[in-house]
Structure formats: C-alpha cells, structure tokens
Amino acid sequence: MTAISNSADVAFASIGDQIRRLAVEQGEHAALICEGKTYCYADLDAMIDRCASALQRDGIAPEDVVAICAEASPWYVAVFLGALRAGAAVAPLAPSSHPDSLAGMIENAGARVLFLDADVRTALKRAEKPPTVRSVRLDAQGDAEDTTGIDAWLAPRGAVPRHVDVRPEWAFNIIYSSGTTGLPKGIVQSHAMRFAYAQRSVDRGYGPQAVTLISTPLYSNTTLVSFFPTLALGGTVVLMPKFDTKGYLALAQQYRATHTMLVPVQYQRLMAEPDFDRYDLSNFVSKSCTSAPFSARVKADVVRRWPGSLTEFYGMTEGGASCELCVELHPDKLHTVGRVMTGHEMRLIDPAGNELPRDSIGEIVGRSPTMMTGYYRQPEKTAEAEWYDRDGQRFIRTGDIGRFDEDGFLVLMDRKKDMIISGGFNVYPSDLEQVLLQHPQIAEAAVVGVTSERWGETPVAFVTLHAEATVDASELAGWANERLGKMQRLAEVVIADSLPRSAIGKVLKRELRESFKPSRAY
To answer: What pLDDT, on a 0 to 100 scale, did the predictor assign at position 143?
Structure first.
C-alpha cells in the first residue's frame, strides 16, 4: 500500500457523487450482491436517491446525524449512502450493544432518525430510558406498530434529492467504540479521510474488476475500510449478513471474489474447515486482516493454502498511525504487525508521557493524515486520547504496549489495560498466549490477570481445545509453566468451550475476568 499522500493529486469527490458518476459510466455493472440478488450501479443509485430524498423531505439537513442499527442488508447500504448524499453523518451502531448503552449512543449522537430492525426495536424497549427518536424499520413493509416500515418511508421511485455540496471536513460517520464501561466513545471520521482510504486502495487492486466479499458487520470500521473503496472505485460488494465457513467459501467461489477483509478468528475458522481445499479461490488478489491479534501459525497457513497476497494491518479506528505486514514477503516477521506505513509516524512513550527510544517498550502513539476529528461531544475524552510532542504535533494514543525490532517491525506486547503487574513485574498476556498456542492440542488462548493476595495480580489462562484433544487443565498448566519465566507462570488454566468475542472477533477479556472462579486462594 502506498502513502495516503497519493490522493493529493486527485480532486475530492463525495461517495454520493462518485456513485452517481458510476451509475452513468457503468450503470449495468454489479455494485451489490446480497443473498442471491444483484443490484447494478443504476439500481443502487436510484435506491440512494429515494433515501436521500426522503431524508430531505423529513427535514434532515447537512451535518445532521442519522443512526442505523440493524443486520446488514441492501436497504442498510442504501440508507447509509443516502444519508451521505444528503450531507448527513451516519452513526452505524452495533445491534449487540446493551440496550442502555445503545440508547446512550443514540442520544449522544443527537440522531434525528433511527433505522432499525425488529430485534433492535425489542431490545430498546428494555432500556432504562428508551430513545424517543423517530424510527424506521428496515425489515418491514408499510407501518410496523410504532415504527414506519421502509417501503412506506421511502420517497417515490424516480425521486431526485436536492444536490448537496459535501465538504471534505464534514463528518462522514461516527463509529462508536466497543467500550466495556461507561458510554462508548463516538469516533468522528471525515469525508476527506474516507476519500483518502479509497484512493490509496487503487494500489491494492481495487477498481471495477474487484469483487469484495464482506462478512463483517457494517457498523465496524474494519468493514468500512474495504466496503467504501470497493464502491467508490466501481467494484462489486458481495454482502454476507451472517458469517459461516462453508457459506463464505461458497460465495467466494461462486462470485470469483478478489478481495476480502477478515478478522483473525474468521481466518482461523476458515483454515480449520475440513473442506477448505475443495473450493476454488484462485481469483483472490488481496486479503486483509485487522482488529485483533493474528497468530503467526495461522498467517503462515493462509499464505500456504490461499491464493493472493495477505496483508495484516495494525491501527485504530481513531486513526493515528498504522502498520502493515505483507505476510508473504516477510515470513520471518510473522510475530510482528509490520512496519509503519509511508506517511505515518509512530513513537513510544512512558506512563508519564515522556518519549522513549525506539528499542524501548512503551505505549504506542501515532499521527497521520487519517486521524479522527475527535470523540463526538466528548471533548474531555478527546483530550485524554491525544499526546503532543515538543513541537506541538498531535498524536493519538493507542493504549497498546509495544516495541520496534532492529528492522523497524512493530512487536505488540499488549493492551495497556490488559497488562498484568505481578509482584511489581510487568507481565504481557500476549507472551503467555503465544507459548500456549504452541501446544498441539490448544486451539485458542487468552490470558487475564486476576487478584492475588501474594502478588497483587497473577495470570490465568482460558483455552479452547481441538476436537481430538485429550489433555486436561492441570497438564496444560504444567506444560506451559515449564516454558515460562518465574514471574509469568500461570496460576490456573481454564478449559472453555469457546471464548467470548465481539462481533468483529476481539476476545472480551473483561467477561473472562468476571466469569473466573478461583479454585483456591492465590
């Protein structure tokens, strides 16, 4: 991938204007495929116009906010793009959120209208303070009890909205963090940022010939960094609302997918699929991965068995700096997340905010042309996320601990909040997890710190096993502790059927800590 600065030579155009142009230039070309139905660019453009016209009819003005909380569908896509064409910002929300958290995000965003489905509507009724915002059901025709169905809400066929001259600095979307305490933070990303992402994607093969298989949620930035470049550059999105391994592989083969962005647990499950090698995946050009730790073993297996390049990206929705690892080019660096991308800058700082040498271990901070504007209506949280160097340059704090090796590749140690302090020593769960994953019977591993009277904190491992495994928890603890340093040793190993994960594959360590019941005092 090239530097973001490449987009400087291309005049800014909003995604709404880009799709309108493509509807003229390649109107019959497939834009979106979902559950067997194909929508060409002319179809999608008309759907977007109906949504934008309806929003304008209802008084939605440029820079207002529209919220969407539903399962992915063609009308979800059209509403998202219709809001952008009308100049509004979109807050795509996770349906899996706690009802009170969801209500809080809707209030924080100041959403003028909420697009939802039946499950979300039911969940919001359980909120302590249900939102009073007008609702439109994406999965209902006509009026649906106390909400309006999408068909009844839409402007008539052939409707054309008033043109809005979208400015690059306007908010494109507000992505809410998956925070586990308090109100999730709304990360504001601009039209200019999304435009830059799309332009730099040309060098990864995005264009009219691209067929991108999307199987992660549309509320996630992980999804949007491949979804919007595909449409902005005239490619085809194959939308898979719910992921399963055989369904994914069948879609990839049927539509000759060329691009995909998956999270590590999806790669892990796909590579473990017994029928994986029976599918024709020869059209793949580029595969990407982000959002969670990606084991070196699985990376190597993907490169060996799945055609096309594999690139791991490390970064934050907030922006800052990013790293990329072109996996097939650096087989000796699979334990890293790659080098800092061109045009980006990363530094390391200590807990007091002092800059550290690059060979130190410290918190990662970064800056680039793709930094968030800030957290929506939370200036104090924005300030907490920022770090300024001696020259007054603004960086975004990642909350991750890492170090650079001698070749400039970034090695992640752990999330700052997940680091375990045992007997005054810093213990990095990722180090322990990598050791556990070397055991042939362990499929997944997550290490958390639990309270210890003797040490303050002590590490406990949660693991899942391969189907044929026969080992027990005490054997695993003994095996691992033989390979760990004295201060790293596990107090206990818990064998679980599965690890709790977010919708984009991140292990929810808070839930593991809360569920742990010690077998003895530590």
So the answer is: 60
Closest to 398 measured CA to CA, from 408, 409, 387, 410: 387
Angle made by CA atoms 458, 462, 464, in degrees to the nearest 5: 160
Structural domain boundaries enclosing 323: 308-414
Of 3-7, 99-103, 455-459, the poorest mean pLDDT is in 3-7
How many angstroms from the chain centroid is the CA of residue 101?
Answer: 19
Task: Examine the pLDDT at 179 and tell me if it is beyond 80.
Answer: no
- CA distances 123 to 150, 171, 280, Å, are 19, 28, 41
What are the C-alpha distances in Å from 111 to residues 90, 135, 153?
A: 9, 10, 17
Coil, helix or strand at residue 347: strand
Cβ(87)–Cβ(61) under 8 Å?
yes
What is the arithmetic mean of pLDDT over 341-365? Answer: 95
What is the pairing mode between strands 286-289 and 259-262? Answer: parallel
- pTM of the shown model: 0.86
Residue 75: which residues within 8 A CB-CB, separation 6 or more?
Answer: 47, 138, 150
User: Of the residues 242, 273, 296, which one is the last residue of a structural domain?
Assistant: 242
Both tokens assigned to 379: 């200036």
Confidence of residue 142 (pLDDT cuts 50, 70, 90): low
- pLDDT digit string (tens) for 477-490? 999 999 998 889 99
Q: Quote the CA–CA distance of 238 and 214 in Å, as a whole number.
A: 6
pLDDT at residue 444 is higher than 70: yes
Are 343 and 319 in contact by the 8 Å Cβ rule? The answer is no
* Domain CATH number, residue 370: 2.30.38.10
* CA atoms of 243 and 262, how far apart (whole Å): 10
Question: How many Å apart are CA 362 and CA 11, to the nearest integer?
Answer: 39
Q: Are residues 396 and 445 in the same domain?
A: no
Local structure of 492: helix, strand or coil: strand
For residue 88, the SS3 value is: coil
Q: Residue 465: beta bridge partners?
A: 442
Q: What is the rounded CA–CA span in Å between residue 73 and residue 60?
A: 22
pLDDT band at 267 (very low <50, low <70, confident <90, very high): very high
Q: Residue 173's closest CA among 84, 71, 55?
A: 84
Q: Are residues 63 and 116 in the same domain?
A: yes
Give the pLDDT mean for 77-87.
98
